[in-house]
Amino acid sequence: MRWSYSASRSFRQCQRQWFFKNRAANARAKDPFQKRAYLLSKLQSISAWRGKIVDDVISETIIPNLNRGFFITLAAAKTRARDLFNRQLAYAKRHPITDLTLQVSKEGDDFAVFHAMEYEGELPEQEIEQAWCEVETALVNLFSLEDIKRILKSSDYIVAQRALQFTLMDDVTVLAYPDVIAFRDDAPPAIIDWKVHAFGMNDAWLQLAIYAIALSRCKPHADFPRGFETQPQEITLYEVQLLTNVVRKHSLEKEQMIEAEEYMISSAYEIACLTEGRKYADLNVEDFRTAVYEEACQRCAFRAICWEKSHVY
Prior knowledge:
The protein is of the alpha/beta class.
């Protein structure tokens, strides 16, 4: 079983949502229900989409240029963001996910599908306009954060959105995707996590602690520094709230390490007890609890199939 921080949160919010995303959804399945679940799993809220636009500009434009020794201008970053924004918005308005022959991997950067289109039939224009304003705000704030810019510019090599895996316990593999890992010859690595939240009040120390543990235990990738090894407590952790322009620097104490370990183990054990290593075909969706709060159902990408009385296509 693969465990991740996001999957653990999904499971505790709604076990059935976790089932649809982590067991039912399958892009290559011949079963129409599984393919439908996969396409629904791609639905985004408008706020999540604008955050992804920012993430993509950072990971696919800014970071690669930094690794080549260039720091692109704010104007260039905005231009790239606007191009992605316009192309994805145009694609999303077509809303092709009812087509079970759709192959997401072939759609490239244009692909985007929205929860609002699936369940409300239209996109709220005011929210779209606000989304672009917030993309701009996030990028402006990023370019104003001198401490973060200094870390990025002084790094010897930076990786973005790189999968880190390690074995937590029997048959459980932890999968983590830090936004940025900055390797430095003269200092321990830094992990940076971008947040594009309107309020930015949540403290992401637990998520960052799990990233640090993953970096210390994973098998190094081929482009990691030769002989790379580190301890979680040595890694500098930054939570960067790009809409509120707040940077939180986290350091891990022994008690926090223990708490993060216990969280991973208890969450993985809870999921393993319910699934017992069984694959999708051997599981029954009725064995998974629905959400406690109605608001979670309203936001859920899988509402269409969860509320159906029959899974027949």
